[in-house]
């Protein structure tokens, strides 16, 4: 690398540190579970993991990955349309479609790729995508790519504002296809899309609804089938994208679930599908086992909901200000970025890992530590974490 380039990069990194946005990587030395070993610190209670159901450490899920490794080998060594499609992919895709309530599904190496491969493939210059302002970066980049490649139009509506969404839909009545794109659970706020209302508006304005359910699959609804089950509209969402890297085993991978026609069309035309190796069979095997395990053990979802309610309620009793919600994402608003970072560091010293977020990840004055509860957390885990919050909060004068 040229010295001038390295100097420029180092200067920007130094500015990241001054701004408090420099990311320090914390290294785990054990499986992702309620408690982990981290950087020689011994056991740490982890409250920053997407392992919502604790399935990444379930023996049946681990064993399924091992069996897939033995049966199919270390890698797929090909894209899907050449010779990278294995029987385990088809089994997984059928199981995912059945789980979320669609005709078909198509797996990708990540949900980022699933989102990236959707908008630019589906939409053209006569079409428009209408996006919630707090959508995930992968949706934003998917739309940017579509505007660049397929020349579609886009517009943003205010977060969960149905009046604004209706106005945007009315303004787009000349478009050939109107797509409303929203997260199911918004990851930084922990709130849930008003999916039933969105679907009602979409029907009135002949629009397609697409939901990125990455933080909701395995999490929302009585049996973990996502935002649609939570809203009582299972089977009514046109397109669902989601991940295998969170509640469904936590490994990697993503998928798009929709009609047979759309999934087949994506197989033929979606560039991340056409030009990236297929999902490793080990991951497909463990994800399939995770779906089957969840179907047999819906009590995991019940436990998750109960633990999240308990943790949020106890934080409020201690004097903190967690955002209200029905999800296991519990953001605790602290105000300034420095306090969020201090709080995170003090909690780690107490044996609890929680990530602090400040500007520009969240708006100024809305810095927070974001807690993520897992069904694997015991009541003792949660009480120990709450005691650490109380101790750190008092030292910082927050409670």
Task: Summarize the structure in words.
- With 399 residues, the chain is α/β, with parallel strands linked by helices.
- It has two domains: 19-48 and 298-395, Aspartate Aminotransferase, domain 1, CATH 3.90.1150; 59-296, Type I PLP-dependent aspartate aminotransferase-like (Major domain) (Aspartate Aminotransferase, domain 2, 3-Layer(aba) Sandwich).
- Helices cover 45% and strands 17% of the residues.
- It has 15 helices and 15 strands.
- It has helices at residues 3-19, 59-72, 80-84, 87-100, 111-122, 137-149, 162-171, 195-204, 227-231, 260-269, 271-275, 281-296, 299-318, 337-349, 379-395, and strands spanning 35-37, 43-46, 104-108, 128-132, 153-157, 178-183, 185-186, 191-192, 207-212, 239-243, 254-258, 329-335, 352-353, 355-357, 367-372.
- It has a seven-stranded mixed sheet with strand order 3-11-10-9-6-4-5, sandwiched between helices. Strands 1-2-13 form a three-stranded mixed sheet.
- Strand 7 (185-186) and strand 8 (191-192) form a beta hairpin.
- Helix 5 runs parallel beside helix 6 (137-149) and helix 13 runs parallel beside helix 15 (379-395).
- The longest helix has 20 residues, at 299-318.
- The chain is globular and about 60 Å long.
- The mean pLDDT is 95.
User: What shape does the CA trace take?
Assistant: globular
Please state the structural category. alpha/beta
Rg on CA atoms, Å: 21 Å
Number of helices: 15
- The helix-strand sequence is HEEHHHEHEHEHEEEHEHEEHHHHEHEEEH
Taken together, the total number of domains comes to: 2
- How far apart, in Å, are the first and last alpha carbons? 49 Å
The mean pLDDT is: 95
Biggest beta sheet attributes = 7 strands, mixed
Quickly give the CATH architecture of the largest domain. 3-Layer(aba) Sandwich
Helix content: 40-55%
Multimeric state of these chains?
Answer: single chain
User: Could you name the CATH homologous superfamily of the largest domain?
Assistant: Type I PLP-dependent aspartate aminotransferase-like (Major domain)
Q: Trace the largest sheet across and list its strands.
A: 3-11-10-9-6-4-5
CATH topology of the largest domain: Aspartate Aminotransferase, domain 2
How many strand segments? 15
Unreliable segments (pLDDT under 50, ≥5 consecutive)? none
CATH class term of the largest domain: Alpha Beta
Our estimate of the beta-strand percent is: 15-25%
């Amino acid at each position: 690398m040229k010295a001038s380039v390295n100097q420029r990069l180092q200067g920007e990194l130094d500015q990241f540190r001054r701004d408090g946005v420099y990311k320090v990587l914390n290294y785990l030395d054990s499986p992702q579970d309620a408690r982990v070993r981290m950087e020689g610190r011994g056991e740490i209670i982890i409250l920053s993991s997407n392992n919502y159901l604790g399935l990444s450490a379930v023996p049946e899920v681990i064993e399924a990955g091992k069996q897939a490794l033995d049966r199919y080998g270390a890698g797929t060594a090909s894209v899907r349309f050449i010779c990278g499609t294995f029987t385990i992919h088809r089994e997984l895709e059928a199981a995912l479609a059945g789980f979320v309530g669609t005709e078909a599904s198509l797996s990708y190496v990540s949900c980022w790729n699933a989102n990236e491969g959707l908008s630019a493939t589906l939409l053209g210059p006569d079409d428009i995508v209408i996006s919630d302002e707090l959508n995930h970066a992968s949706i934003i980049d998917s739309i940017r790519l579509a505007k660049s490649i397929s020349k579609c139009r886009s517009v943003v509506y205010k977060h969960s504002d149905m009046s604004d969404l209706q106005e945007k839909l009315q303004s787009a009545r000349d478009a050939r296809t109107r797509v409303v794109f929203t997260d199911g659970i918004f990851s930084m706020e922990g709130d849930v899309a008003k999916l039933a209302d969105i679907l009602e508006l979409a029907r009135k304005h002949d629009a397609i609804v697409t939901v990125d359910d990455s933080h909701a699959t395995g999490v929302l609804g009585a049996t973990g089938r996502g935002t649609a089950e939570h809203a009582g509209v299972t089977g009514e969402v046109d397109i669902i994208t989601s991940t295998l890297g969170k509640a469904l085993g936590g490994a990697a991978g993503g998928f798009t679930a929709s009609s047979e026609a759309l999934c087949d069309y994506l197989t033929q035309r979606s560039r991340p599908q056409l030009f990236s190796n297929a999902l490793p069979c080990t991951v497909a095997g463990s994800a399939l086992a995770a779906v089957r395990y969840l179907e047999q053990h819906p009590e995991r979802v019940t436990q998750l909901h109960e633990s999240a309610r308990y943790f949020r309620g106890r934080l409020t009793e201690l004097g903190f200000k967690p955002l209200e919600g029905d999800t296991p994402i519990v953001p605790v608003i602290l105000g300034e970025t420095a306090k969020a970072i201090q709080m995170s560091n003090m909690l780690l010293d107490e044996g609890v890992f929680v990530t602090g977020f400040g500007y520009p990840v969240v708006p100024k004055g809305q810095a927070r530590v974001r807690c993520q509860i897992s069904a694997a957390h015991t009541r003792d885990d949660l009480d120990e974490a709450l005691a650490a919050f109380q101790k750190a909060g008092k030292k910082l004068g927050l409670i």
